[in-house]
Each structure stands twice: as structure tokens, then as C-alpha cells.
Input
Amino acid sequence: MNLTCIASPWVSQPILPVILTASHTRTLVLHPRHKLTYFQNVKWLDRWIKKAEALVCEEFECFYASSDDGSDSESNEVSPVKQVKSCNIFDQLEALAPPKLSEYWSELDRYLNTDIEHVTDALVWWYEWRATFPRLSRMALDYLSIRGMCT
Output
């Protein structure tokens, strides 16, 4: 269970704990206007912020990161072009092989390292950015489309 606190201008530490569910926490992180900045603004402790980030990361890695298709769900076309094995000796060298998917920065890392944006409709934002964040956009749309989550 995650807690948030309302800060008082007269007290340096948070004073009034408010309970946030895991779904609410994920939704705040996935909202382009808030991300992790929301938790910093309401004076969460650093360990709570790291826990919120880990919560989103675990969900993404477990259910979204390894999905086979990073494409838009509307296009289910199979490419008619077969991949032909190259006869070029340099294509066979392991040192020159393209990086594996796990070696790339994850979509979540890239998203969290971008600036927050003034967004009035997070669902529209994620739909427009689905090509840049194909897997993360599915997760965001799943959470942000829950009634009462995206306001």
C-alpha cells in the first residue's frame, strides 16, 4: 500500500497520510502531466517515490514489455517479406550484431526521462504517442481508461 502526504507550509515533514492504491499510483506515473514529479511535489519520501517507480516498472516488465508485437493493435498484417540469411561474413560476426531488445532503454525509462507536459487529455496523448511507446501506451491506456482514474 502506498501513502501520500499533504504538506503543510509550517512543518518540514509531511503530516497527513492519504492512502493511494497501486492502480492510482500507476495512473499518476503514467499521466504525462505528473509522472514521478507529482510525488515530489506532495513531499513523498524518496523511498516511497522509488517504490512507486518500482511498482510501475514491475507491472510494465511483467505484462507489457515482452509482448510479441510492439505494433498498434489495429494493424495485424503479417509482412510478406521473408528474412533472407546474408552471405556477408560481417553480418555473421557477433560483435557487429544489432543490440538485443533488452539492451535498449526500456520504453518506461525513456518516458520517465522526458519532461512533463501540460496535457489536458492523457488518453489522447497516449494514443498520439503509441508509435513511440507501443507497449507502454497499451499499459497507460489500460490504466488511464479505468473510470475515475484519468481526470
In short: The first strand starts at residue 2 and ends at 6. The mean pLDDT is 76. Residues 2-69+105-144 form one domain. Residues 28 and 38 are 7 Å apart (CA to CA).
